[in-house]
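Hi all, long-time lurker, first post. I run a small reading group and we've been trying to get comfortable going from sequence to structure in the token notation. Rather than ask abstract questions, I figured I'd post a concrete chain and ask someone more experienced to write out its structure so we can walk through it together at our next meeting. Sequence below, copied exactly:
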Amino acid sequence: MTLPAQLKGKLSIPLIASPLFIISNPDLVLAQCKAGVVGSFPSLNARPLSRLEEWLERITGELAAWDAEHPDQPSAPFAVNLIVHKSNDRLEEDLALCVKYRAPIVITSLGAREDVNEAIHSYGGIVLHDVINNRFAKKAIEKGADGLVAVAAGAGGHAGATSPFALVQEIREWFDGPLVLSGSIATGYAVLGALAMGADLAYAGSVFIATEEADADEGYKQMLVDSASNDIVYTNLFTGVHGNYLKPSISRAGLDPNALPESDPSAMNFGSGGNSEQKAWKDIWGCGQGIGAVKAVVPATEVIERMAREYTAARKRLADAAA
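-- Answer (accepted) --
Happy to help. Here is the structure in token form:
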């Protein structure tokens, strides 16, 4: 197993805060990075395109200033998520800006392309590719990705249906590079569990929706506080790709979350609502199964501090058990 060189000595806990469509913004990313976890955002959150350059300029500038002022507590690097699917007509422009600002980590989703990976490698950046099964994992590495984000059952957004135990085990049979695990991770105990299974890093997203910095509707944040794993439904209705969503948001839109029809996968349309009149993720709110750990809307730093305490406690518990 290999931790990317860009991350060594810069993390308070081995965690990447996943890119949250519509929700992640520079305030959230900067808070995450300064607290010692990789902060990330989808490039498509910055609309129009000119705004992406503004975001990248601000993030790189503020993190450089932080590092100069805090040499003993350097920031974690940031990551940009690029949607590689053919429906993304901004990919080339967004990729060019990632190269210009030398984004340390790029997370690619919904398609693996050699030219994208080569562009990121041209300045020393690394590419982590989202996968939901072992077959996609092999394709991503064959096309030049440096590492993988294994999106297992229970993850928020476009999640897979495979148990994290099975998915990590199958990938580790042939791949010893950087591996990140996503799926119901909202505590420091879960972070250590991901490492125990064979991952190098954990990946958490939903827990950061209910933060003060997040660009989420206040009703969305409160719904996370009020909900638990049994309030999540797995469906492909809203984008054409299966994902996890909050049942109360579906009910509020006038649909029965327990009797949703199947969507046509060929009509994938990310961010515009797919085959439904309701828009994912604006009206239908995505969320993973780990939200039982969300008890209040707090600053992102407070979430990370809690997870760090839990991670330390989990390591001590294991050490005591082994003594």
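A couple of things your group might point at:
The radius of gyration is 18 Å.
The first helix runs from residue 26 to 34.
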